[in-house]
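User: I'm preparing a small set of examples for a lab meeting where we compare how different chains pack in three dimensions. I only have the primary sequence for this one, and I'd like the structure in token form so I can line it up with the others. Please keep the answer compact; I'll paste it straight into my notes.
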Amino acid sequence: MLKIVQRTKRALSSVCRVWSGLTTPYLYEHVKLLHIRTLYSLLHNITNSIGFQHGKMVTHGDYVLRLDVTFCDLNQETVGSDILSILQHLFRNLPNLKVLLIKELRCFYRPLRSMQATKTRRFFLESVTPKLEVMSWIDGASVSVKLWASFLRSHPRIRALLLPCCEPLTGLSSLRIQLPHLEEVISCARRDLIFYPEAFTTGDLPNLKRLIHLLPYNQDYRPTYIGHHPFLLIHGSKLQSVHFWSFNRVGEFPLSKFLRAVQETCPKVREIGLTCYWSDIVAFPSMPAVHTLAIRNLDPQFGKGDCRAMLRSLVEAKDGGLVGLRVVRFVDERNLAHLRKHFHQQLNSAATALAKLGVFIEGVGLP
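Assistant: Understood. Below is the structure token output for the 367-residue chain.
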């Protein structure tokens, strides 16, 4: 759908000069950097003046609201390139940027773990406008915690955050970071924030509402993750929505343990989300306040067994731990389309059974 929208925008801009002027802001509002070669042309494009508004020079960069840096052509030849410096210059020319997604820059980023001791170069994210609201860093590379803390302190408007790896976090309490607008944290077991209470004290995240947590693989699991869960102990009372991603294919470990941690520490939670393989879906502990269950299957081509396990778990959840359940939502529309196409009868039967219990499945009408 997004590709169709982009093609439509480009087609409209080519009709005439007037239409081009009208559509330009929409053409540049969401920019994707998929190839390194496009980085240079984009930088040239966005710095060119296209006129004046309210007595101020306007460039294409003024229209960019979201930037996805997801290079798919990284190789050994490009590792030596000074990509981070170019990105830093690019960010400086995007004054209205609201959403920034960075994915897999680790081959450029390795030297920056010790960058806090280098005065000749600045952290490449420091040039991002303080207007930034959403920061998503999808990467396994480690980031100097002092650099990351400095970035957060200079971007207080952030309302959604996916953390990079920050190691080590010992002594982070002296770096005090306050994010008064932060509503959503996306964290991973390997990004240790969720397990270190000194990262953010309770007063530093007054508006936190949602947690999305990527659970560790079984082989990466450490019992202390669950035994203490300090992030939930400190911030759980604020959370209204918790969504877990579990990539494990065997047994219920450790998903069920995290659900019990939510049960113990998050009394205000109204929405629980599970992204997992439906064949491994687990029973819910008692969480009577939960109103909405959001589910996704990691296997888009699931079979009859997965379908049966998921639909059965919905009925059991209402009869068991989620007595207040009212809405079931399929997060991935492809899951629902697959159910409609291959398991239409089973889906309708489950929808009817749940309706009798007062539960509505979004997007599924009663037969």
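A couple of notes for your slides: Residues 28-208 form a domain with the Leucine-rich repeat, LRR (right-handed beta-alpha superhelix) fold (CATH 3.80.10). The first strand starts at residue 30 and ends at 33.

User: Perfect, thanks.
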